[in-house]
Amino acid sequence: MNFLTRLKILPRWIIATLDSFILFYCALFGYLVRFNFELALIEQYDAVAGSFTFMVGGLLVMQNTRSYEGIVRHTGFRDGSNIFKTVLINFILFLFLNFFHGNFLNDRFLLPTSVLIIASLSSLFMLIFYRLLVKELFVYLKNGILVKELKNGIIFGAGEAGIIAQEAIKRDSKILFNTVAFLDDDPKKEGKNIDGKRIYKGLGDLEKLVNQFGITELIIAVRDLSVKRKNEVIDECLRLKISVSIVPPVDQWINGGLTAGAIREVKIEDLLSREQIILDNPRIHEDLQGKVILVTGAAGSIGSELCRQICHYEPKLLILLDIAESALYDVEQEFKENYGHCPIKIVLGDVRNKKKVKEVFRAFKPQVVFHAAAYKHVPMMENYPEEAIQSNVLGTKILADISVLAKVDKFVFVSTDKAVNPTNVMGASKRAAEMYVQALNEYLERNHKSYHTKFITTRFGNVLGSNGSVIPLFKKQIMHGGPITVTHPEITRYFMTIPEACQLVLEAGIMGEGGEIFVFDMGEPIKILDLAKKMIQLSGKKVDSDIKVVFSGLREGEKLYEELLNDFETVKITHHPKIKIAQVLPSSYHKIDGQIELFMELVSKNSENELVSHLKVIVPEFISNSSRFEVLDRLN
To answer: How far apart, in whole angstroms, are the C-alpha atoms of residue 618 and residue 603?
Structure first.
């Protein structure tokens, strides 16, 4: 039997030969039934010749329908309909031949009509039956002979996705997954069977099934499962030490069909404590189509995803500007390979370089600017405050001022929740930049009412998987066997995915009329310790015994809780329930413009304390935490 386990696909000539034998013997069977097994009558009607003729006719039809080309162990409805077509065409062919032969060449039909009917029906049955038999044989070889290697598992979801997942698993001999039961939240399905496997309700019987069958795997196969319910299922699996996989959305299936290989492990992005925010505003297409668009920080995780999404809206030209040459090169290669339809221009440059920025605007005349370039690593910027101020504050001012002179339609500034009641230089520098673009917008509205650049700010939390974020760090630490370092057991953060963040930026660019700060309703903040523990468990490891979690203490400038609004800000609702506008008191443009210009002189003095002290003047709510700059707060 071992050779059968190695035999992946039956050769076509074997299938064609088997089909020929079946056609021949089904026709012979038709003669036997028609003439009550009386051999004399059968010989009189030359049954062997008639059966051979029926077989030859069927083979000729097969050459047209190609019914022998299907992979037998993957036999499905399409193969069955192909066989039905073959038999039907063969039946009609012999009806015509009988009519022609009986009326013009002889007084006898090639095959008696009753024999033709019996032969056609029996061959239809047998051709399909043997294929299904072979299909089940392969399943038996997988689940029977290799039973010791199979992992007993459960499929959560007894709907269409669950059934398709079960079929995909059965088809793929490499997937050593033996489905022993289904779980489903629909009480109407309880007690019924799919493919001989019983359906149980909800998660109530999961522990009993684990103990009874030794379950080690669970596949989530529900198309519209809420994040809350998904978390409940995953938490229960983690408690019972079961590995969890998930069936991807239908739009990610290959050619509209699910393959077992597409069933993937649960990713941390699946565990957001809220429903994923989906924006679909047709106005985005209207606003971006046919325009020249500049994205700064285009090689970063946010900037590059922003560019990918913009490509779908058919811009006239997309300018990708970044200072990181290696990352920019990688993005360029990706866009050449996957977004060839979108005209792009790669620009290696620094937003702090006024001469370079002017050259870009003069050469390409962008109409919309998405400003994502920034230094965002909190401890690093605490060590190098001059870099944070030059890039995040002065770089933004340079880009904003030149955008006004170039008569850009809209300028969308990407900010962060760390700008709210900042406790570090990075957050305070982003808040100062927010204040400048908002004050500039108000100044333009008062003094240039006919036309001016509209400045819009977007503010969101931590981005899952972005460069420098905690998720890639935890993954790397798990890969190396730990330990995972968490700064504090009570630290929490708001999280969103990279596509969500970029959707907000695009949506804000459309909704914004100038001067707004858009924030997301990001649900409840996530405890970083819980995140670390789940990531360890999802990797198949045990917390503490396999991988330890250690607390390193708050880093410079870090705070326990992030906020989306400060004590003086209120929110205004928009057309989308998940997007709000922060009502922030505007600053005087002339005042903040002069304050930011003063940074130029302070940078030349090379005094960190003077730079940070002046930043605290601009952003009075900036109170340092776990930082050497706390002394400046005591002096003020």
So the answer is: 16
Share of the chain above pLDDT 90, in %: 24
Given the residues 142, 189, 410, 418, select the one marked as catalytic.
418
Residue 407 has pLDDT above 90, yes or no: yes
Q: Does residue 266 carry a pLDDT above 90?
A: no
Distance between CA atoms of residues 478 and 111, nearest Å: 73
Q: Are 227 and 186 in contact (CB under 8 A)?
A: no
pLDDT in tens, 184-196: 888 888 888 887 7
Domains parsed from the chain with CATH numbers: 12-144 (no CATH), 151-266 (3.40.50.720), 283-465+494-522+563-618 (3.40.50.720)
Could you give phi then psi for residue 108, rounded to 5 degrees?
-125, 140
Measured distance CA(627)–CA(636) in Å, rounded: 16
**By CB neighbour count within 10 A (0-12 exposed, 13-18 middle, 19+ buried), where does 546 fall?**
middle
**381, 424 Cβ separation under 8 angstroms:** yes
pLDDT at 225 over 50: yes
Q: Which two tokens stand for residue 615?
A: 């930043």
Q: Phi and psi (nearest 5°) for 342?
A: -100, 120
Judge whether 527 counts as a catalytic residue: no
Rounded-to-5 percentages of helix, strand, coil across the chain: 50, 15, 35
